[in-house]
Amino acid sequence: xxxxxxxxxxxxxxxxxxxxSLDRIYLNGYVPRLQTAEGxxxxxxxxxxxxxxxxxLLGEMTRQFNQAVEAFISTQKIxxxxxxxxERKDNIAQRLRKKDPRRAVVVFVGVAQEKQQAFKSGxxxxxxxxxxxxxxxxxxxxxxxxxxxxxxxxxPCFIKVGSYFPFPVRICCNGHEWAKRQLQKEKIGYESLDxxxxxxxxxxxxxxxxRSLGPIHLKDLFERWVQRLPWPLSAQDRKAGxxxxxxxxxxxxxxxxxxERPVYGREFFxxxxxxxxxxxxxxxxxxxxxxxxxxxxxxxxxxxxxxxxVAPSLHVEYKHTGIKQYFKENRALRTETTINDARDFxxxxxxxxxxxxxxxxxxxxxxxxxxQRVSExxxxxxTSIQRLTQPNLTTEGQRAPGLRLTNTRVMALLAALxxxxxxxxxxxxxxxxxxxxxxxxENLQQYSVAKMTYDLRRLRLKGLIARKAGTxxxxxxxxxxxxxxxxxRLHARLLRPGFSALQPENLSSMPQPLRAALHRVDLEIQxxxxxxxxxxxxx
Length: 539
Hints:
Blueprint: H1 7-13, E1 15-30, H2 37-46, H3 55-76, E2 80-82, H4 89-99, E3 105-126, E4 130-151, E5 155-162, E6 169-174, H5 175-185, E7 190-193, E8 196-200, H6 203-212, H7 215-226, H8 235-239, E9 245-259, H9 262-276, E10 301-308, E11 311-318, E12 321-328, E13 332-339, H10 354-376, H11 382-389, E14 392-393, E15 399-400, H12 408-417, H13 429-440, H14 449-461, E16 465-467, E17 474-476, H15 478-502, H16 512-538
Parallel strand pairs: 2-3
Antiparallel strand pairs: 1-6, 1-9, 3-4, 4-5, 5-6, 7-8, 9-13, 10-11, 11-12, 12-13, 14-15, 16-17
Helix pairs in contact: 12-13, 12-15, 13-14
């Protein structure tokens, strides 16, 4: 029977198309000058020339907008759908899009009651007599309009507009659908894989198109439909500076590896699960790391394998960011990083930051695959083991203390490093310290900053980690990646269960062949001792 291919072989030898692209993109639209009560009053005083600012003015704008939407629907003969609570809007959209396959139109308009941050008013006395109104931002449940579109550039997308001041907006589009429209304009043939690609006549050109999607294209999409749809703010308002700015709310960065045959995709997931399942907890299969979540834990780390039917998927979570890996349409490995908060990576949410966030997402996808490659081939040579465990001098003449593998603190350090394998921005002292303390069962006072600083120094001198220039962040070196994976796996698979099974009270849990072999060894040792005793007595 031939051996099954490794993860590296599957990715290097059996993938016919690899594509990096933006997938689903969610944008928030907001009017910067209308986010405070002072901004609201300034708008009515300057743009609307109102001397008294009352709730009636806000209500009138809502009524005018609702009437404009109703007139638009009636004139254009557009279907109107009232969304029920808990109903999947995407399913309805797919069904109605099939009925109306036209380009550059509003396919239908959906209506839903949803929460938004809006201004609510209260009365206040001014000069002892005149009544004034004060406004505060509060969550309220109001009508939202979903304009489901077929855009000439982006294909299927939607724009949601809240009907109450300050009229928040949300835009959803898909980078793969945008790439398809660009290929169609250039008359390049391709084969779809759901919303992605299974094949393309010019894969290099497809990759160039996917890389070119940027903020300008998204801004053009928004401005194009602001001119076509009924809008709560007039052209005069927008000219006066009261226009919506765009910010990134959610960004999906995908990598698609199309296999030559579907069986290779199944073998990929079998290999991933086989090589990493031992690091998990019984309640949830953990593939890359194992940890407990406590009050002093920075962010969240979680890895799960979910099986829907016969299709497994891998989920990794960090703070507000998630990585999902699954077998798309039984043909391709899809690795997706979904960034829900740009501030997880110390980057702003403004649309101009799209390239920086996309780079982080694509690097994270590549990092996950690299970890999966290394995790299957992380054997260390005797020389590496000796260099790790024995004190030595670095090339700069610094003394590097040894990392004894029987030491609980050392094993806690290596296990904690596994938590940060997939993070593109690395980790800081305080992040690693919290994890090591958790593994040691100590609080942060017991595992002090001084101890963490010492441990970081010896990890760095041993070449396991390195510091990013000009920062206080550290990252795992390729050697450190192999060491942390190999030794953590060795401890989880062999040392911990092995030493536990050797205890007299746990002998019944030892596998029968091993128990029988050890029993034979025990008898032979006793026989040898008896013979030695008899010989001594005879002498």
